[in-house]
Design a protein that fits this description.
Largest sheet: 3 strands, antiparallel
InterPro entries: FAD/NAD-bd_sf (IPR036188), Sulphide_quinone_reductase (IPR015904)
Number of helices: 5
Shape: globular
Bound molecules: flavin-adenine dinucleotide
Distance between the termini: 47 Å
Radius of gyration: 21 Å
Helix content: 10-25%
Oligomer: single chain
Protein name: Sulfide:quinone oxidoreductase
GO molecular function: FAD binding; sulfide:quinone oxidoreductase activity
């Protein structure tokens, strides 16, 4: 939405385009520290926010989308709206072989302790990444912080010790608000802001050119040469006191 708004703004055609943002949830972004910056772009792109709208059907030929609208304390309704272009994000769910396995919780995710990432029932199973149910934002940035936690705890387990490392819920959403600028949301459990950089380098609550450069230029190098090879100096887990 943001990058389309930016492209249309730059081409001077934004005024002729009606941007509608439909969200099944009730907020623009789950951590309020970042909402102010995002709202400035919502205003700039003149996007209309529609919360509690769950997409139930798309008719491609007729170019219509149907939503179930269930605002708190009101009776749910259904609306069908036309579109010229629609961008859809499907609901997240685990693959069937996980959803339908004894590893899953009632919602279908691998059921782990959110700190140690050890399965709540099966004491020889750990999980990480999108597939498990810790209440973090499902991002690669989160998996990157979870990997050393699981590695440490598996090693401790092999040595007959209890878990030694804990995951703090860190996740990161680089919100591409315009070409060349990113609002770098970094936060952990409970929406606690967990910036990787001091404010004077990157203030995550503000759109930043440096954050764009980090994502576009630096992160691919860090990803391929550091993370995937198990060498990443900023992913040190919290220690659990014995
Ligand atoms: C559009 C988009 C943008 C994103 N942008 C960002 C971002 O900017 N920053 C960020 O940090 N995160 C981002 N994410 C999230 C990030 O991609 C995920 O959090 C991350 O990939 C999760 O890694 P994973 O290894 O847990 O799962 P996955 O990457 O989903 O890997 C699971 C793998 O298992 C395979 N698989 C499934 N079933 C089977 C089977 N039966 N047998 C064998 N293999 C199987 C799948 O093919 C897949 O390769 C984005 C996601 C999307 C969709």
């Amino acid at each position: 939405m943001y990058l389309s708004g930016d492209a249309w703004h730059r081409r001077g055609v934004l005024r002729e385009i009606d941007i509608q943002f439909m969200n099944a949830g009730g907020v623009l972004f789950g951590v309020k520290d970042y909402v102010l910056a995002l709202m400035e772009y919502v205003a700039k792109y003149d996007a209309t926010l529609n919360f509690f709208h769950t997409l139930t059907a798309v008719d491609g030929d007729a170019k219509t989308a149907t939503f179930r609208v269930a605002k708190p304390d009101t009776t749910a309704t259904e609306i069908t709206t036309g579109f010229d272009m629609i961008h859809v994000c499907p609901p997240q769910r685990a693959p069937a072989f996980i959803r339908n396995s004894p590893l899953a919780d009632a919602a279908g995710w691998v059921d782990v302790d959110p700190a140690t990432l050890l399965h709540r029932i099966h004491a020889n199973i750990w999980s990480l990444g999108d597939v498990m149910n810790a209440p973090n934002a499902k991002t690669m940035a989160a998996a990157r912080k979870q990997a050393p936690v699981v590695a440490d705890n598996v090693i401790a387990d092999i040595a007959g010790k209890p878990p030694v490392s804990a995951y703090d819920g860190y996740g990161s959403c680089p919100l591409t608000v315009e070409r060349g600028k990113i609002v770098l949301a970094e936060f952990g459990y409970g929406g606690k802001v967990l910036p990787s950089f001091p404010k004077w380098v990157i203030d995550g609550t503000q759109p930043s050119r440096l954050a764009w450069a980090l994502k576009a230029q630096a992160l691919p190098q860090i990803y391929w040469n550091g993370m995937l090879k198990g060498r990443e100096w900023m992913a040190e887990p919290d220690r659990i006191d014995a």
